[in-house]
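Field reference: sequence -> structure
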Amino acid sequence: MAAAADKSQFPTCFTVAAEMKVRGVAPNLVTYNTLLRALAHGGYALPTFAVLEDMLSMGISPDTTSFNHIIDAHRTETSGILPFIMRRMEELGVPPNQTTYTLLITRFADDKNLEMALQYLHAMKNHNLVPEVAAGQAVILLAANEGYPKLALDLVTFFEEKTVRKVEDSIWLACLYSSAQALYGQGVIKCWYAVVSDLAIPPDEGLCTLVLHTAARNGLPDIATDVLRVLKAMDIPREEHHFASLFEACCRAANFEMAFTTLNVMRQNGVPSTLKTVLPLVRVVQQKPELLDQLWECLDKMQAEGQLVDVTSFNAVLHSSILTQPMSRALADYNTLESRGLAQNAESFAVFLDGCISAGNVAFGELALRRLKESETPVDNNSLEKMISLHLTQEVYDDAFVFLEEMESAGFTPSRQIYEAIIIKCAAAGDSRYLVALNEMQRTWKHVSPNLKAHAIRLYEEKQGAVSSTMVGMDRRARRFIETGGL
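Structure field:
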């Protein structure tokens, strides 16, 4: 019978049991446990209850092994029956053991029922039982996969403290992935070094990117630096978004010198930084404007020590000044760039012009442009378009057309966006020059959106209608004077 049970040949087992009955051989606990083992091997759940009742009718008390087989047989059924089996076990005074809880916990873990798995894990601790490796890892993996990295790591600590066994490498990897996805900084610190340093498991680029995001959000420059080291070791090209995470981590940790050094490293590695890269620094200054002077001092200190300071570093601090200080202070900071060894350049000019556009400050924009031209720095397409945008913020915007002509004379092609801005501004002001701009856009780009044209016409007609209504009731000579422009 035992040999048949090991091979899941439960019909053979029951045939032997029937033959025992015919011969008058009384079954004992071993007999019934063998029958239950045969059913458990095959996952035949329902017959196990019949065997249990037959045992009881024969006056044989089941033991823990009996119920373990019954629980194991129910692995193919819904897990809702398991609490009933445990109550029956309690009624008969049969104590659970380590195997009992392992079967229960792994079953609920397979069903992704974290609450019940934890409940039986807690019950196991109350009975001073240590979970088996399978049970412990099943709950840890479930917690990690369900987005509870802190719980998963607490369970890892509990498991490794209570047993001499260590969790498998895959468990640490799952905890790292879960921590990174949840932006759980402390979890990433613990798991990253466990995976990369202790276990020497190379993470893929996707996981590295997730860890970088967590490092950036939690201000963990050491982790971000190590991730970049790993990427380089795996010959994975380091892109702007990789370095941007390190930059943000430095800013959140208030390590501004390291943040500025990161921009230098980017330039040295052929990875261009942009204003988007340095936005985290701007956000920090917006939250604490008093940091602005500290940032300028940091740049001065780096230069005094002979360190290379990337132009983007200056532009980032200048951008912060524009967003948090009056334009007069921003202009003063812009003017100090030359004294700090930074020659007039189109990048810094564009940053300052953006501030002028937001403030509608044409005077400061024209002043900055004049200084740029005096330094014989070439004025590029982007700078001229920004000057057009700056003048379009005013009620009198004739100089916008002057810069448009300057662009065309210099051989630059105005963008669709700048044409659209001119068209909308003119139409909204009731200025018929919007038609000229439409024609120029058609000539340059060979296509004008019908929606744009319709919108411009509607704005123009609405403005003309409003002007006409204000002239109703005017003296005829006064109206004639307005219509002819005083001619």
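Note: Residues 467-474, 481-487 have pLDDT under 50 and may be disordered.
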